[in-house]
Amino acid sequence: MIRKVMIVDDDQEMLVSLKEGLERYSEIFRVVMAEDG
Hints:
1 helix; 2 strands; Response regulatory domain-containing protein; CheY-like_superfamily; Sig_transdc_resp-reg_receiver
């Protein structure tokens, strides 16, 4: 079962950077992003 990780931040560049850094773990979890909580 693939788990989901949600990243919430107002800074779009930070969201993209974190998502790209976590892509290597795509077999373990999927990253979901939101710009506003």
